[in-house]
Specification:
Elements: E1 12-15, E2 29-30, H1 32-40, E3 44-56, E4 59-69, H2 83-89, E5 103-107, E6 122-126, H3 127-133, H4 138-141, H5 154-161
Parallel strand pairs: 1-4
Antiparallel strand pairs: 1-2, 3-4, 5-6
Length: 185
């Protein structure tokens, strides 16, 4: 098969069987190789295509730009507690000073004081704020999170993910994505 593509070029947007993206952040994308494999294994429907094709001596196929799964994948009802998901819940912003760089996570009630590593006790914090607060309680430092920590829903994370569109959005994807470009992350 001969192809002339840049590495990482021509990814396909992956939609669930109901034509909703599997994920917004990170955006549900497959490489063109994985997409072609899924087509041949009859796991997806091709919704839209690029102008670029892959060819062999006996076969030619335009690369899919949007595919939908043939089998519906039930979304998780509660998101996993991960560092990335805490940052996404808090919109990649320090909950103490608003900074967007050098992010860590902070236990509002410090672990040394019985605080647990849970959605309800962890917030995004920049390193300087986290170091300043240290093992002290917010009332001792007068540092209160702008938003108190909470257990987000999948919808909360999807909505926040829409605030951070990727650098590249192919025209064929736009009918399936809902980005609010008016909001400044």
């Amino acid at each position: 098969m001969t192809i002339a593509l840049a590495a990482g070029a021509n990814p396909a947007l992956v939609l669930n069987a109901d034509y909703r993206p599997l994920s917004y952040y990170p955006l549900s994308l497959w490489s063109w190789q994985d997409t072609i494999k899924a087509v041949f294994l009859d796991r997806v429907n091709i919704v839209s295509e690029y102008e670029v094709a892959v060819r062999s001596p006996s076969f030619s196929m335009r690369l899919p730009s949007v595919v939908s799964l043939k089998t519906y994948v039930k979304p998780s009802r509660s998101p996993a507690f991960t560092r990335f998901n805490v940052f996404l819940r808090d919109r990649f912003q320090c909950q103490y000073c608003g900074a967007h760089d050098d992010l860590t996570f902070d236990h509002v009630v410090p672990r040394s004081r019985g605080g647990l590593t849970t959605w309800e006790n962890v917030v995004t914090a920049c390193s300087p704020c986290n170091l300043f607060k240290g093992g002290r309680h917010p009332r001792e430092t007068k540092m209160w999170p702008a938003q108190m920590p909470y257990r987000p829903t999948v919808s909360d994370l999807h909505n926040n993910g829409r605030l951070f569109p990727p650098n590249y959005l192919h025209q064929s994807w736009l009918d399936y994505l809902y980005w609010d470009t008016e909001l400044d992350p």
